[in-house]
Give the backbone structure.
Amino acid sequence: MDAWRKPQWTTFAAEALARSGEGRLEGQTSLTPQDLTSRSGGTSTLRLLFLLLLAQGAAAAVNVAQTSSAVSAPTLTADGQQTGTVTGRVQNVATGQFLNQARVTVKGTNQIVFTDKFGVFRLINVPSWPVALEVFYTNLDPATITLIVPPGAIVGRDIDLTSVARYGKDASTVKLDAFIVTSDRETDAQAIATNEQRFAPNLKNVMSTDTLGDVLGGSVGEFLKFMPGITAEYDNVDIASISVRGIGGGMTAVTADGAFSSNIWNSFTRAVDVRSIGLNDISRIELTKVPTPATPADSLAGSVNLVSKSAFERNGRQLRYGVNLVGNHENLTLKKTPTSFLDRNTYKILPGVNFDFTWPISKTFGLVIAGMSTNIFTEQHFTRNTWGTSGTGTNAVNASNSSPFLQTYYLFDGPRNLTRNTLSLKFDWKVTHNSVLSLSHMANRSVTRQGNLTMQLSTGTTGTPTPVNGVPMTWGPTFTRGATGRGALQNACSFGRVDQLTDTTNLTYRYDDGRWKIEGGVSRSASTTKRRLDGDAPDSGYFAQVIATNMNPVRINFFNITPDKPDGLEVFDNSGQPVEWREISNFRGTTATNSFSTLRNQYNNGYLNLCRRFDLLPFPTALQIGGSQRVQTFDTNIQSIGWTFNGPDGVSGATAPMQPYVMQVYKNMDSHYGFDGVQWLSPSRAWQAYLQNPRLYTQTLAQQFAAENNKNS
């Protein structure tokens, strides 16, 4: 049996309007639902929602309360005592923010309610005699309010809370200080989170987005990684998705105001890619670790709900904005410096801007507009050892799990640029005295540009040299000496631009008169991910990847092996002469690849919950029924095309020099881990050369069949 503690709406305080300086909306308002239809899977849910709205509207009063008190037919308690209703809003008078989950108790009774996210509370069946209301909120001073409730009356009383220790005795005039403002904002945010967790009906963590101050690039992922129980899942340096309790992103629901989010990267999965989601239009984040009966079955790990800002969370207009510069310690200069993508010079210290505007236009209508634009350049360097546990030929046959050898060393250099733009708009409309209708739309756009450069050096798995009079393979815990002619070098470079577009529209309705509670909504979230092979200009195309391997047979040695890398490595040809593996003259071209893809994902969702509270037991009790329908649709269009390098004349691929196709700007760069000066191939220069001379790369018959088989797969 669930104890519902969150009444959802009532009158917007007239005194708050007076402070905001805005006009009032007089008269009466009513809701006339139109005949809405939908092509999504949630049609029946949507119709049922509005049928119930009609039924509830016929039974409930639609007059908007314009005074602090109204009279209705008195009700009686079980012992015959006449009762009334007390309603109002609770706010932090110093910050002007209305408080969610403030506890309001009728002293001396078991009547307890909690404010909703607009700070509204509603106490029904309050005895008609002088009563005292006790109000509690974490980190604010408790308050006791005495009032008289006439029989059958609806008494309106707004309650202001403060903290004398933090704000002083006169909290209405707060002296702002450039350093104290941020501290107070984060303290208030922490109090909000602590209070919501304290009174949550299940195991839940809540963090206000002001808790951590400014977050790098306004990234949701960068914020979520600090929440307890969440594991960040990375795509190189970017936080791509999250999982709760280690169960996996596919079993972790990510929603925005209860609407399921659709956002994918490069494969079909229920895990939501968070890198394009902005943070500035989010008020707080709720992490639920324990499923409830209303939790979808595919959210076994838990759920993360991004609660957007609301117009009625504050008592007046508020505009917040920020301008920032984001840089990387490797490129702290205002000048253009080389980057691998498209082999050009770019700025590395980049500007960003964000804003959010909250405007309660009247007692019954308000809006929130939020936007953000960030541009982040990130250096990516990593290294990897791959160990061999089996082999053939001399000595290598003795390799095992207990006696492995370092087979391959992998060096990666991949600068990346991420541009994120978000814009959201939300309307809140108080339809009746006890109900609110909210409509929101969020648009997220992100572009990732990356140039990934990789070098692989491998000893091979054959211990017998070729020719047979060469050096056989030997190894130990700190070294591997490869066999003559059995090694391999690979210089592989790939460019990529990934555009992500996500649009989420959410319509919700909430009704709460203290006894009945109705919550319903419909939403649509659609995302598109496109992998493009053009740059930022019409003439800046490129191959997705170009590869070159060693021109002649080689032998590779690794020395002073550490867990991350070998401190030393040597490359020799079959005559025992050193080979400079950094120079492209020792490589020959092999293949080039182009990859195109368009991935689409869409969620259509509808839900309806009906709750009835009872006074049958000495503690809060309620009965809830509900249902939901969610339809997820995937669509894919992927194509991969491969070519073989043939040289400028179409026949000399094995011996043609690769110098014309190396990077001319991104050169002599430090790839870290003690390796620099690698001559990297340029997919854009190879592509331009191919356009001018189609004989440079051609397709074999097998590659033509493979391209046709991969088309529109």
